[in-house]
Model the fold of this input.
Amino acid sequence: MKKLAFFLFAALLSLQYMYADDVVIKNINQLPAQARTFLGEYFAKQVPKMIKMDKENNTVKYSVEYANDVEVEFDADGKWTKIDMNKKAVPAKLIPTFVSDYMKKNQLDKKIVTEVKHCSEGYEIDLNDNQTLYFFNDGKFDKVVKSK
Done:
């Protein structure tokens, strides 16, 4: 019994250290101004369930989660890096024009964009049929990957 209690305590302690760099923010006003403006424009009708600030490798990232499991991530400057609509459609205004154009040209316009990620390498676009489209930052198509 003592071994089990010690094991559970050690596991709990290790979890605490694993997430030590995550800070839960209680007030949306603690987000960078650009992130607040973005959320006010596209997610104004929703109330955040949790707002986290993650400090990792000398960088800061923010994550805003809503009750319907929608998640939006931002970099330290407040620029969005990920919009995950949890299997629902990403608002059309948030889908880069070159992605919409590619989807129309390749007869994918009946598919639903459920997640958009933007990083230094380019864009990753998840569709509702388990396809992921990859684009370079200049809008040129890179590849499509079909997951199981």
Notes: The first helix runs from residue 2 to 18. The mean pLDDT is 87. Strands lie at 22-25, 48-56, 59-66, 71-74, 80-84, 113-119, 122-127, 131-136, 141-146. The longest strand covers residues 48-56.
